[in-house]
Design brief:
Layout (H helix, E strand, L loop, with lengths): L1 H20 L2 H11 L1
Amino acid sequence: MMLRQKKSKLKSVPALQNMKINPKALINLPRQKFT
């Protein structure tokens, strides 16, 4: 469980940083995941 939490945190941290830096990044992220 610890490893899973760490992995999820690592993925969420850059996402949160992108949100603060550029809100448009949030819109681009889902598109990149689908494509």
